Amino acid sequence: MINREIIRIKTVQLTYAYYQNGNKNIESAEKELFFSLSKAYDLYNYLLALIVAVTKESRRHLEVAQAKATREGTEMPSQKFAYNKFALQLEENRMLNDFMEAQKKSWSTEPEFLRKLYLQITESQIYQDYMADPDDSYAADRELWRRIYRTLIQDNTALDAILEEQSLYWNDDKEIVDTFVLKTIKRFDEKSGSRQELLPEYDSEEDREYARKLFRATIMNADEYQSFMSEASRNWDFNRLAYMDVVIMQIAIAEMMTFPSIPVSVSINEFVDIAKLYSTPRSGGYINGMLDAIARHLIDSGRLLKRMDEPRAGKKKPATEENDGQK
């Protein structure tokens, strides 16, 4: 689950924190990086467990409604949502249960949130359409939860507040982790039962090593990489840059120099996207131009053994001290 997109973002966050921290201990910073990555996986499991918790909440409401119907001699309420086939399979999932038990985590500490989310779901058109539909297949049950997650859980301010209280990392992680939860819902197979595999913590051991190498290269070669920045830009002045921009470019250069199989264009595009999220409004365009110029300079000087496409005609020149406008 922890892919290179998450690793790049975490490396930016932890590198920035490393330079802001007076006690610059690379071993401690690296441990913090991997702890931060592990918290993203915790969140993935915790959000899957929320589906189970809401389903259990629905069964409590069903029991009350059934008792009332028995007393009053009225029609029994539908059990369709409370015993949704996908949710029941997730509830029995061995990997999820083992993880939640090991972490000693539970949604039972948030009864008011669960009650409100359950009511929000039952009042939604998605729920009304589902309950009225005679289709009682596993696929329909799974699709219901995919739609509920996308519309009522993915952007939920009350949930965001709870996550922020539980972990400093989780609000930054949630947007990416949401995509993995939705991917997991989609890939569930009824035939797998309780043995359905969730996403592993890392897509591969190679990605874990990628995180370690990227972070260490960024810190240990900082002076060299910043000299590359100076060489590629006339009259460079770091004081005129947002400090986050320097950090992002430093990490991008580390990726270019350390990983031969990653194309230069991929490194540039990934870190430009991060700049748009974590730095100033103008940083994306500025960093794009600068990284392009830096990479070409390193290739031309023989220090970067990669290839780049020729610049398009009329392409804007990279920013310099005279034209960057950065303050």
Question: How does this structure look, described?
Answer:
With 327 residues, the chain is mostly helical. Helices cover 68% and strands 0% of the residues. Helix 2 (26-72) crosses helix 9 (170-187) and helix 12 (243-258) packs parallel to helix 14. The longest helix is centred in the first third of the chain and has 47 residues, at 26-72. 34% of the residues are buried. The model is unreliable at 313-327 (pLDDT under 50).
Task: Briefly summarize what is shown.
The chain is mainly α and 327 residues long. It is built from 14 helices and no strands. The two termini are 38 Å apart.
User: Count the helices. How many?
Assistant: 14
- Percent of residues in helical segments? 55-70%
Number of strands: 0
Beta fraction:
under 5%
Features:
0% strand, 327 residues, mainly alpha, 68% helix, 14 helices, single chain, disordered C terminus
